[in-house]
Design a protein that fits this description.
Layout: H1 3-10, E1 22-26, E2 29-33, E3 41-46, H2 53-71, E4 74-80, H3 84-97, E5 112-114, H4 119-123, E6 138-143, E7 149-155, H5 163-179, E8 193-195, H6 204-209, E9 213-217, E10 220-223, H7 227-234
Parallel strand pairs: 3-4, 4-5
Antiparallel strand pairs: 1-2, 3-6, 6-7, 8-10, 9-10
The protein binds benzoic acid (BEZ).
Benzoic acid (BEZ) binds next to α2.
Length: 237
């Protein structure tokens, strides 16, 4: 591989970067990313190949959960290094023939990008040559309503994604934005949240004495945040 090709293959956008722009052909028509998704969250994810078992289990799960993601103002967009006709045939097979964990007759209605030339996959660092040079790894990019990459998760080819975690991460980032807080390990709506360091809104002493804030020490303070308040902000009515 020429040096510049190799560099292109490993170029990776990072958290906080604007999502690299692209136009693509998908199973739902052409898309311009991220501009078509302005004002919404999106999850852009890649899978290694159509007609493979782990990917099939993932697509069925994502399609099954799509409404739940949409209700949190989030759109799903898939991608693999396959052509449009392969995508269409695979999705038709899933709908007509595959039953898995109680899911059947599953129709994938979110766009699946064809990326035969790997243009998008290379832009997003989805090709990781030491894992596989012709298949995308299982990458997940969370892009916010302003088109900024907010979280990135990569999985190897053999490991199917955890969709509870993808949904949890989405809701946690939205809650952090809405309420100006951070979320601790394994946080779920209804759990206490982390309030920022003293300084911007009071001294450490005031904070330690605030009855609504529970400080374990000066650097680690939490407060209650009602589940309904979180979900009321995050979920569309
Ligand atoms: C799968 O989705 O099953 C798969 C795809 C590529 C490599 C290994 C597994």
């Amino acid at each position: 591989m020429e040096e510049n090709q190799e560099q292109q293959a490993v170029s990776m956008p990072r958290i906080g970067d604007p999502a690299p722009e692209f136009k693509a052909v998908t199973t739902q028509g052409d898309i311009n990313f991220p501009s078509d998704y302005k004002g919404k969250w999106s999850i852009l994810f890649s899978h290694p190949a159509d007609f493979t078992p782990v990917c099939t289990s993932e697509f069925m799960t994502f399609a099954h959960l799509e409404k739940q993601f949409n209700e949190a103002n989030c759109e799903l967009i898939g991608l693999s290094i396959d052509g449009l006709y392969s995508h269409i045939a695979w999705l038709r097979t899933i709908k007509e023939k595959i039953e898995y964990k109680g899911m059947k007759d599953i129709e994938v209605t979110f766009p699946l990008i064809e990326d035969i030339k790997m243009d998008v996959a290379k832009k997003y660092g989805m090709i990781q040559p030491n894992e596989d040079s012709t298949k995308a790894v299982r990458a997940v990019f969370f892009v916010d309503p302003k088109g900024i990459i907010r979280a990135i998760i990569y999985y190897p080819l053999s490991l199917g994604r955890n969709f509870d975690e993808l949904y949890r991460a989405l809701i946690a980032m939205q809650a952090a934005d809405e309420f100006g807080v951070a979320t601790p390990a394994d946080w779920r709506p209804g759990d206490d949240v982390i309030v920022g360091p003293a300084g911007s809104c009071g001294t450490a002493k005031e904070r330690m004495e605030d009855s609504e804030i529970d400080c374990k020490d000066w650097f680690f303070c939490t407060k209650k945040l009602d589940k309904d308040e979180v979900l009321g902000k995050v979920l569309k009515k």
